[in-house]
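Fold it.
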Amino acid sequence: MRQVDSLSHTKWECKYHIVFIPKYRRKVLFGRVRRELPTVFHQLARQKESLIEEGHVMPDHVHMMISIPPKYAVSQVVGYIKGKSAIYSARTHSGRHINYVGQHF
């Protein structure tokens, strides 16, 4: 049976396939970063009342099936997850910064 979520006056099932790609498709998602990012993504999604149904972190991109409530814009949730995870990786991985839009340094 399909999972249908609800808000106070609506029933909804909004799932999106999201792909993050670092600039020039650089292979920067490996090792400790690759192991820690899924938990960071799940925590950030919960903060926006979203749920990551399925996801894969590859060396040069991230696939994610995410369920986002209709009260949030998809771009708002994805921008939040991308931005906060980049800040987290910059602070915790000895200065190695993963920027999903620009270059890493």
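The mean pLDDT is 84.
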